[in-house]
Design brief:
heterotrimer, A mainly beta (87), B alpha+beta (970), C alpha+beta (222), A: 87 residues, C: 222 residues, alpha+beta, Gyrase A, domain 2, Alpha-Beta Plaits, 2 domains, 5-stranded antiparallel sheet, 14 strands, 25% helix, globular
């Protein structure tokens, strides 16, 4: 069982967390093409590498972003979305 | 006949506590502290089991928890490992893999068939003719597996514990003890685990007839004892390595998952047998096994034995054997050069002959192959692995000690991701590149000299402490020049075979050659074809020789062959341990006890317990009768359901309304305080996720409900989007904090009115209205709803007052005939009302256009989740539509079930039933189904195929269904 | 104040053990499960007590800290920490901008705060329904090693820190305090999980030779 660091509650076992999918920037729905939108909604890049992921610490109800290398399973940093700089 | 010898220093048996047990019907004496095998061996009992495949008699091999041919049953447990399991008074034991007793096993004839049972025999033989396979399958299944499962085994809940430490050290031998003492001395919290009953590793048995090792061990154990930072766990094994240093420690009582900051593997090595004909006879065992017998259990392994060796350990074994009065006839050294002059002389001084460059060509069995009569010794050619039989000598003996080399106990290192390399000087795999925070010390690290092992433990502890951020100096361990511990090819060919490589599965040298000939010449393929290493010992005494044989067949260096994958668990672990105590949380509403007391049939509804219906004791109500009665009570008078499981979320803040407009499909900015609106949630693909109700309690306060099953996910998604969108919103999840109940039916208003100060009249409180006030003296939130009936009130109160309000309403409703109703009746009631249930009547692909929910989707808003996808979907023709339907009046055929398919005239699947029920109120079968859009308008007919294949006619009709009553003129 | 008898979330889970019950803060509560000396022996080994009836006040929102301070409440300094008030009431900071206040039986801070209307933006009262337990005894570590994955003894709860973690599969808030000169662990969880958590913890506690103690064990109420 891996450990993960919640930016608010510290290092906890993975069993306290829920995975929230990859963080991806949404294209502007007003200007993007149908094809671009469909790709955003339905396609996922499966190739291993450094990914930004949503994680949720259940006991405290904290969402945050983890930057994880899916090849090595190493998390390089975690932060609350939008507070990236403060970390 | 007893082989028990005089008291040994440090022996593990307690001579003050003799005990008696039974083995195969024979009374056996032992002492507390004996294992089954040691007690049997002390009593001259040599046949401890039968091999898995050929049913050959077997005795001791490793004496280290890997003797899988000596498995016992006590009638309750099976496959008890006799080499390590402690004896107890009155035990009644029998060997597992026999028919008619271990000595006279009726299946021993199979040994004579062995030439006709080559490797791969089963794969190739029994698949044709096909009609005979069931017959053979039955035979093979009976022969497969060891022991009999006891289906009456008592249920014992074993704890699963968590523990934490700075340094976890696996193996309490010289290196592990040294590492523990050094790390603890610097203030680190150490857990030291060893699979033996006592710490010490080889220090507790590999003495070479001297006292020095025992002295060293005493010093180390005293230091460990004195160190409060060390928690020593013996009789337990580290089962595996998991991410971020989580190691399950398996004890007899259960599993402890240790989360360590760093791990030192000092697990030692497994002794490896040389391979020669009849190396499996009872009395032929590893050198370390004879030493364990001598020093731990004070049992003489045999009276007159030989040692066959390919390293110096054989000489040490010979000295230990000689020290307890075993007549050691000879040390047979497979190395052309033999041992050092000094060591050779020590052995010779005991009157033991030394045959350099020799091997055992074969062991000669006694009658019935139950023991060793003599060995045939020949000169050995290390290059060709051939014995020169022209110059053979026969040595009479009753036992053989074997020492050909070692294989690292590196399973956890492999699992942690260590890259192992093959050391050509040691002829052993050793850690090449270790993962972060994992260290190796001692023999598993290729360090064999005792002093060097102690140093290596200190070195590993130093590196571990540096890793933990403590600057301590780390000495490098100077290599000690010594004889090679392992032989590169300790295998002796024999034309008649029976030179066993794997004792678990009776695999001989020729099996590997045949497997390679058939093309299975990769180690992983060879493993699966020959089954080497697939028995209960998982190759701990066979994989290394198998790799050496394959390397020679393919003429490649051992490193190029590689090893098979070492997966957790390292050692067979009982299912009861893995299961252990599990946690299955349930949520209870405030009214739970009332439901139970009043006949509520409590069912799992997600994580909640809810009454499906009420059948009070003595009422004689069947489930379906109870559901129909509850439904009719709501239609004709009044009923009440516990709706506390609804998700309830408060949304506060200046952006609350704007947030809901982005989150849900509807509009909330212009919503009036005191009104409610449907809150439908889509995902980004435009699929319906949830539908709830949003009440505006104040300008900056909404009270939103969600479906029971979606409470947690909707709240979570709200939290995520508040963060993502950066809005000024505060969310509070009140799902548990508020009890809720719905009073429904024509009399519901009069019942509620008696208990509240809120004006609930039709004029003051139209459908959808929300009011705050008091109900039964409690602050309550009350809403006019119409999900289960045209007239209904949903009442929310704080949890701790829930039971009080519920009871008050039941009491107030007595005269009106109030009945509590459960989830089954609720399903039927909403179906009569024509309300679909999201994720019951819809699925993971259903969009609002397909479920008659267009009006809830405000496409003129600038943004909401799923809007962009709906814009795309809106341009495409609909593939299906959810419709309400009825069956023919008086239908009494086979009732279609949920998920039965809608079939068109061409026998194509065009839809499916999502809900169906008989309504006594309507006297009709009614339901929801997905059908092609052209069949969804009222009056269209379609056919449903039942489980048995019968076709049932259904007709789409308008919802709610109550018009059916009018058309009947009621 | 209404005359309704409120229910402890775990009241029905208690019923099997036939406690002496009474009303505290308007809530039906188990006052004692056994004779005082029996409870004292249990407590020495390992015991659990239901204190759900203590009055609580919850508040959340970006301005809640300032609002509480203005109301004269002493706040814990950092996130996930707690501090006692002079009168013994506990103030817990859950994360950063949410607070939970819990009174001793004789205090009325929560009542006062509940009665205070919130006029400030960014301050939102939170309706609470906690199940609350006190666990103490010399075998607490044996209990927590079975139900909690994190290391509660490695300083996680020292220096008035509180921890939001999972206990026996349920999200819970924990802290360690000294009560009646005895170190005790406090556990809060959603009341709907209360009966489950009570039964689960009590099952393990009894395996370890401990048992339940009533509210009177810690608080002098008659």
């Amino acid at each position: 069982m891996k450990l993960l660091e919640c930016p608010v509650n510290g290092v906890r076992p993975l069993s306290e967390f829920t995975y929230g999918g990859e963080y991806r920037d949404m294209p502007d729905p007003d200007t993007c093409s149908d094809k671009e939108w469909a790709a955003y909604v339905h396609y996922r890049a499966g190739a291993p590498g450094l990914k930004k992921e949503w994680w949720y610490h259940g006991p405290s109800g904290t969402w945050f972003i983890a930057e994880r290398n899916t090849l090595t399973d190493k998390v390089s940093r975690t932060y609350i979305a939008g507070q990236e700089e403060s970390k | 006949m007893t082989s028990r010898i005089a008291k040994k220093r440090g022996e593990w048996i307690n001579r003050d506590k003799p005990l008696t047990f039974e083995y195969e019907g024979q009374q056996v004496q032992g002492y507390e502290g004996d294992t089954i095998s040691s007690a049997l061996w002390a009593n001259g009992i040599r046949v401890l089991g039968r091999s898995f495949k050929y049913h050959r008699a077997r005795g001791l091999l490793s004496f280290a928890n890997h003797d899988v041919n000596a498995l016992m049953t006590d009638g309750e447990d099976t496959n008890i490992r006799a080499d390590v399991w402690p004896v107890s008074n009155g035990m009644q034991l029998a060997a597992v893999n026999t028919e008619g007793g271990v000595l006279k096993d009726k299946n021993k004839y199979i040994d004579h068939l062995s030439p006709f049972l080559p490797v791969g025999f089963y794969y190739k033989t029994f698949y044709k003719p096909k009609r005979l396979f069931p017959f053979w399958e039955d035979k093979i299944r009976k022969a497969a597996g060891l022991g009999k499962v006891n289906f009456n085994y008592p249920r014992i809940i074993k704890p699963k514990r968590y523990a934490h430490c700075d340094v976890l050290i696996i193996g309490a031998g010289a290196a592990g003890l040294s590492a523990a003492i050094n790390a603890a001395a610097e203030g680190f919290n150490v857990i030291l685990v060893d699979e033996n009953r006592q710490a010490g590793g080889s220090l507790s048995y590999d003495h070479a007839g001297e006292q020095a090792a025992a002295d060293t061990l005493n010093t180390l154990l005293e230091a460990v004892e004195a160190e409060k930072n060390i928690r020593l766990i013996t009789d337990a094994y580290a089962g595996g390595y998991y991410g971020d240093h989580l190691v399950p420690i398996v004890e007899k009582s259960g599993i402890t998952k240790v989360r360590a900051q760093t791990v030192i593997v000092a697990a030692g090595v497994f002794e490896q047998p040389p391979v020669f004909r009849y190396n499996d006879l009872p009395g032929v065992m590893l050198g370390s096994a004879t030493q364990r017998l001598v020093h731990r259990y004070a049992v003489k392994p045999f009276d007159k034995g030989v040692v066959v060796t390919a390293n110096d350990h054989g000489y040490r074994t010979a000295l230990d054997l000689a020290s307890v009065g075993t007549e050691v006839v000879a040390v047979i050294d497979m190395r052309a050069d033999g041992a050092s002059q000094e060591l050779t002389q020590k052995v010779k001084d005991k009157g033991i002959a030394v045959h350099k460059g020799s091997c055992i060509y074969e062991a000669v069995p006694t009658k019935g192959k139950l023991g060793v009569k003599e060995v045939v010794v020949c000169p050995y050619n290390e290059t060709t692995a051939e014995a020169d039989t022209s110059r053979s000598v026969r040595l009479v003996c009753d036992g053989v000690a074997m020492s050909a080399g070692w294989a690292p106990a590196g399973a956890l290192l492999y699992q942690a991701g260590t890259k192992m390399r093959y050391d050509n000087d040691l002829e052993q795999f050793v850690p090449g590149e270790l993962p972060e925070g994992v260290f190796a010390a001692g023999k598993v690290n290729g360090v064999f000299d005792l002093k060097a092992r102690l140093q290596d433990g200190r070195r590993a502890a130093g590196e571990a402490m540096n890793y933990l951020g403590k600057a301590v100096s780390v000495d490098t361990v100077k290599p000690v020049s010594m004889a090679r511990p392992s032989h590169p090819y300790p295998i002796v060919n024999h034309p008649k075979g029976k030179n066993f490589v794997d004792f678990d599965e009776d695999i001989q040298v020729k099996d590997f050659i045949n497997a390679a000939k058939e093309g299975f010449d990769n180690i992983e393929l060879m493993k699966r074809f020959t089954t080497v290493g697939m028995g209960p010992s998982q190759g701990k005494h066979s994989n290394m020789n198998a790799i050496r044989i394959l390397a020679r067949i393919r003429q490649l260096p051992v490193e190029k062959i590689g090893t098979t994958t070492a997966r957790p668990f390292f050692h067979p672990t009982p299912i009861g341990h893995l299961g252990g105590r599990g946690f299955h949380p349930h949520r209870y509403t405030a009214m739970h006890q009332w439901h139970v007391d009043n006949g509520g049939e409590m069912m799992d509804a997600g994580i909640w317990l809810r009454p499906a219906f009420y059948a009070p004791q003595g009422s004689g109500l069947t489930a379906s009768e109870a559901v129909q009665q509850e439904t009719l009570a709501v239609r004709n008078a009044v009923g009440m359901i516990d709706g506390s499981t609804l998700g309830k979320i408060e949304v506060f803040g200046p952006d609350a309304a704007a947030f809901l407009e982005r989150f849900y499909t509807g509009k909330f900015v212009d919503q009036k305080v005191g009104g409610s609106r449907i809150a439908m949630l889509l995902d980004e693909a435009g699929v319906m996720v949830d539908d709830g109700v949003a009440v505006r309690m104040a300008d900056e306060q909404f009270y939103v409900s969600t479906n029971s099953s979606n409470a947690a996910t909707v709240y979570r998604e709200m939290q995520r989007n508040v963060q993502l969108w950066g809005m000024q919103v505060t969310l509070v999840n009140l799902t548990g904090a508020m009890a809720a109940m719905t009073v429904a039916g024509p009399e519901s208003r009069s019942v509620v009115a008696t208990l509240t100060d809120i004006d609930v009249s039709a004029e003051a409180m139209p459908d959808g209205a929300f009011r705050s006030g008091q109900v039964a003296g409690v602050d309550a939130r009350v809403m006019r709803v119409s999900f289960v009936a045209d007239l209904a009130f949903e009442i929310h109160v704080p949890y701790k007052a829930g039971l009080h309000v519920w009871k008050s309403l039941i009491e107030a409703g007595q005269s009106a005939g109030i009945r509590p109703f459960g989830t089954d009746a609720q399903r039927l009631l909403r179906l009569e009302m024509g309300h679909h249930l999201v994720s019951h009547d819809t699925d993971g692909l259903t969009n609002p256009f397909e479920a008659h929910s267009d009006s809830l989707v405000k496409m003129d808003k600038p943004f909401f989740i799923g809007k962009r996808s709906l814009q795309i979907l809106a341009k495409k023709p609909l593939g299906k539509k959810l419709t309400t339907f009825v069956l023919e009046p008086g239908f009494n055929g086979e009732l279609p079930q949920e998920c039965n398919l809608v079939i068109d005239a061409g026998n194509n699947i065009t839809g499916r039933v999502t809900s169906i029920s008989f309504s006594r109120h309507l006297n009709r079968h009614i339901g929801f189904a997905f059908v092609p859009p052209e069949q969804s308008s009222a009056g269209s007919g379609f056919q449903i195929r039942t489980d048995s294949g019968a076709m049932v006619a259904a007709t789409a009709c308008e919802a709610p269904f109550f018009h059916l009553l009018e058309s009947k003129g009621e | 104040m209404q005359d309704a008898v409120l229910m402890s979330p775990v009241a029905f889970a208690h019923a099997l053990r036939k406690p002496v019950s009474g009303e505290v803060n308007g809530m039906e509560t188990a006052l004692s499960f056994a004779a005082a000396d029996v409870e004292a022996t249990r407590n020495e080994t390992l015991s659990i007590c239901d204190v759900s009836n203590l009055n609580r006040f919850g508040v959340k929102g970006p301005q809640s800290a300032a609002w509480l301070q203005a109301a004269g409440v002493t706040l814990p300094e950092g996130t996930n920490s707690w501090t006692p008030q002079d009168n013994g009431s506990l103030v817990m900071r859950l994360g950063n901008s949410e607070f939970l206040v819990e009174d001793q039986p004789e205090n009325s801070l929560c009542q006062t705060l509940n009665d205070t209307a919130v006029e400030t933006a960014g301050v939102h009262k939170v309706i609470r329904n906690d199940a609350a337990f006190i666990v103490s005894g010399k075998l607490t570590s044996a209990l927590f090693s079975e139900v909690c994955e994190i290391d509660l003894e490695g300083g996680a709860l020292e220096d008035n820190r509180l921890v939001m973690t999972v206990i026996a599969g349920v999200s819970a808030t924990m802290l360690k305090q000294s009560l009646n000169n005895q170190p005790v662990y406090r556990i809060w969880c959603d009341g709907t999980f209360g009966p489950y958590l009570w039964k689960t913890l009590l099952g393990i506690i009894e395996e370890q030779g401990g048992g339940p103690v009533g509210f009177n064990f810690y608080y002098e109420i008659n």
